[in-house]
Write a structure and sequence with these properties.
This protein has helices at residues 9-13, 21-31, 53-63, 73-76, 79-91, 106-120, 134-146, 163-170, 190-202, 225-237, 262-269, 304-316, 322-332, 342-368, 403-425, 452-475, and strands at residues 37-38, 129-132, 152-158, 174-179, 206-213, 241-245, 276-281, 295-300, 373-374, 383-388, 427-428, 430-431, 443-447. It is an alpha/beta fold. It has two domains: 7-48 and 350-475, Aspartate Aminotransferase, domain 1, CATH 3.90.1150; 106-332, Aspartate Aminotransferase, domain 2 (3-Layer(aba) Sandwich), CATH 3.40.640.10. The strands form three sheets. It has a seven-stranded mixed sheet, with helices on both faces. A four-stranded antiparallel sheet has the order 9-10-13-12. A two-stranded parallel ribbon has the order 1-11. The longest helix has 27 residues, at 342-368. The two termini are 46 Å apart.
Length: 476
């Protein structure tokens, strides 16, 4: 029998907070009949977001093409959905059950490049597009490509999406943490980037790349063009590649804000030396097709011989799943004006994004009215990273603790708080320590994906719970 001592130590070290112990406890409570409001993960359709009609119509035709030969099909499916399915089958006649080219189906990669060109007004090369099983597999592919020595390190934001810290641990690389500026809309601060890089090098780490999440997870921030330009110049100055996680690019709610891609800003700067990996996914935005695991990675400023190694890596896994590739195609090539499905598609899209914007405001404003809580009202993505204050137990002085002791102390406190919140209210959120946070602060991450009634209930329950929890700590 395999014992825990036999298990890869790198795997044991890795942690993925959004599906950790608190979520397991939530599932146990749900089995016991307790209503749980799941706010731990960006999984829209699990929280009652309906799939877009056009996407599912085309997929159903592709999975069972005989439907298109049925005389009744025209009464169920709009003509453009049938035309689109026939077009896809013409270009990919082996259907959904066969392997595809390792980099992905060529016409879909071409469509992705055209999508990027329309979005940014810049050239994009289909031969530098890879179709992936969601953005996560693209990120992991880059870590495999770039991790060459034991001291190779990656600059990642704090707070960050745990995919990055977990992958660093799995691959035996080194983490270089840089803190996002909570007081300035969670933007990247150049002095902080320089500080963290210098600290990493002083510890013997060889920095190879910098990861940025925009719009932010877990922060909900949307980066300005100026801030992105600063990051690109920083990367060039220090010889770093950039990983641009842009899966929430459709999720921008803040007034006067817009999404700026790293590719567009890099093109405008005329930068041709910094290697850029950009990631997008069908799981977020307004599609919410998490289970189909579709996405793409675009690569810029990479030599042919290095890119060949990336293709070889893809070929080891044969290819990304075919349905995910097809949903990616439908994401980048939606119905156009004049198509029979266009009006419904735009209506469904607008309703989803409008609902998310409204719920972001309800959640942010409601939590900010709770004494001892503060959050930036989410400008984008699907999350709020909420700061909360707790009194320290009598006789406890965090200032007297070592950094390691303080980290464990604070992680235990936010984890216990989130567990008690779950058990008393049914609200499932993730402790801030699972994403990383500035020493001396406590946070939790919550989504605003549940239905509006659940978000309103969440704010009310949170207010009552927090006051009660703080009062009990003050009494102890």
């Amino acid at each position: 029998m395999v014992k825990l001592s036999d298990v890869n130590a790198k795997l044991q070290k890795a942690h993925y907070a959004v599906r950790g112990k608190i979520v397991i406890r939530a599932q146990e409570l749900e089995e016991q009949g307790k209503k749980i409001i799941y706010c731990n993960i960006g999984n829209p359709q699990a929280l009652r977001q309906r799939p877009l009609t056009f996407v599912r119509q085309v997929l159903s035709l592709l999975e069972y093409p005989a439907l298109m030969d049925d005389a009744a099909a025209s009464k169920v499916y709009p003509a453009d959905a049938i035309r689109r399915a026939r077009l896809i089958l013409e270009k990919n006649p082996t259907g959904t059950g066969a392997y595809t080219q390792s980099a992905g189906i060529p016409f879909i990669r071409k469509a992705v490049a055209e999508f990027i060109s329309r979005r940014d007004g810049i050239p994009a090369d289909p031969n530098r597009i890879l179709l992936t099983d969601g953005a996560s597999k693209g990120v992991q592919a880059v870590f495999t490509l770039l991790t060459n020595k034991e001291n190779d390190g990656y600059m990642i934001p704090i707070p960050q999406y745990p995919l990055y810290s977990a992958t660093i641990d799995l691959y035996g690389a080194r983490q270089i943490s840089y803190f996002l500026d909570e007081r300035n809309r969670w933007e990247l601060n150049e002095a902080e980037l320089e500080r963290s890089l210098a600290q990493g090098r002083a510890a013997g780490v060889n920095p190879v790349a910098l990861a940025v999440i925009n719009p932010g997870n877990p922060t909900g921030a949307v980066l300005s063009r100026k801030n992105i330009g600063m990051v690109i110049r920083f990367a060039k100055r220090h010889g770093l590649a950039i990983l641009a996680d842009e899966v929430y690019q459709e999720n921008v709610y803040g007034e006067g804000l817009e999404f700026h891609s790293f590719a567009k800003v890099m093109h405008e700067l005329g930068e041709k030396e910094v290697t850029l990996f950009s990631f997008h996914s069908v799981s977020k935005g307004f599609l919410g097709e998490c289970g189909h695991r579709g996405g793409y990675m675009e690569v810029r400023n990479m030599s042919d011989d290095v890119y060949a190694e990336l293709i070889k890596l893809q070929s080891i896994g044969l290819c990304s799943n075919t349905d995910g590739q097809l949903v990616t195609y439908l994401m980048v090539e939606p119905p156009r004006p004049g198509d029979e499905s266009y009006e419904l598609y735009e209506k469904e899209k607008g309703a989803i994004l409008g609902d998310l914007k409204e719920k972001a405001g309800i959640l942010g404003k409601g939590l900010n009215e709770i004494d001892g809580m503060k959050t930036n009202i989410p400008e984008g993505a699907m999350y709020a990273f909420v700061k909360f204050d707790l009194p320290h137990p009598k006789g406890t002085d965090p200032a007297a603790m070592s950094p390691e002791e303080r980290h464990k102390y604070e992680a235990a406190r936010d984890s216990k708080y989130c567990l008690r919140l779950l058990e008393h209210t049914g609200i499932c959120v993730v402790p801030g320590s699972g994403f990383g946070q500035e020493p001396g602060t406590l946070h939790f991450r919550t989504t605003f994906l549940p239905p509006k009634d659940d978000i309103l209930a969440l704010v009310d329950k949170m207010k009552k719970f927090h006051a009660s929890y703080v009062a009990k700590l003050q009494e102890s």
